[in-house]
Amino acid sequence: MGMGESQDSSQDKWGYAHLKHQHIVFIASLLLLTATMLVHFYHNSLRVGETLQVSSNQICDISLTINPNTASWQELSLLPGIGPGKANAIIKYREDKIHDRKEQAVVNTDVFIKAYDLVNVPGIGEGTIRQVKEYLIFE
Fold first, then answer.
1. Among 101, 77, 107, which residue's Cα sits nearest to residue 90?
2. How would you class 66 by CB atoms within 10 Å of its CB: exposed for 0-12, middle for 13-18, buried for 19 or more?
3. What is the CA radius of gyration of the chain?
4. b/e map of 68-86 (b: 16 or more CB within 10 Å)?
5. Model confidence at 48: pLDDT above 60
6. What angle do CA 87, 129, 91 make, to 5 degrees?
7. Which of 23, 71, 81, 84 is least surrounded by CB atoms within 10 angstroms?
8. What pLDDT shows up at residue 117?
9. 3-state secondary structure of 16
10. Could you give the CA distance from residue 27 to residue 64 in angstroms, rounded to a whole number?
11. pLDDT above 70 coverage of the chain, percent
12. Alpha carbons 32 and 104: distance in angstroms, whole number
């Protein structure tokens, strides 16, 4: 710096004061983003006992397949034609059959070998099986 120039860093727009201001703005933005995300996830999370609500358009967009022998209630209820009630029925039927097989010392506890096996679940008929079979895998 020359003789008459001030050494005050607040006057230097590219110096430390400017970087300090950028850090404060960055940290404030990061905190605001984090708070916004937490509020979003809190308000949109599924709580125990709540029903997952989806439209029929969302159901058509399912791009994965699920195994009905291991799928959760939430996964099953997303399948077309299943919903919460039939998902509960599938899980109850599956758990009952697994319990019976364990009592009989059967090693393979897979209840469903093919899509048509779901017809044994109360409330599920051939029409429902036609709707869901493309989304099911059996491993």
1. 77
2. middle
3. 28
4. bbebeeebbbbbeebbeeb
5. no
6. 25
7. 23
8. 94
9. helix
10. 38
11. 67
12. 58
Alpha-carbon distance of 41 to 93, in angstroms, equals: 33
Rounded Cα gap, residues 117 and 72, in angstroms: 18
Cα–chain-centroid distance for residue 66? 13
Q: Which residues pair with 136 in a beta bridge?
A: 66
Distance CA 16, CA 29 (A): 20
Phi-psi region of 51 (alpha: psi -120 to 50; beta: other; left: phi over 0): beta
Which residue type is seen at 4?
G
DSSP label at residue 121: S
Task: Supply 11's token pair.
Answer: 């006057």
Q: 72: helix, coil or strand?
A: coil
Structural tokens at position 41:
């996830």
pLDDT digits (tens, 9 = 90+) for 74-109: 999 989 899 899 999 999 999 999 888 888 887 777
* Of the candidates 62, 61, 66, 44, the residue with the CA atom closest to the CA atom of residue 53: 44
Length of the chain: 139
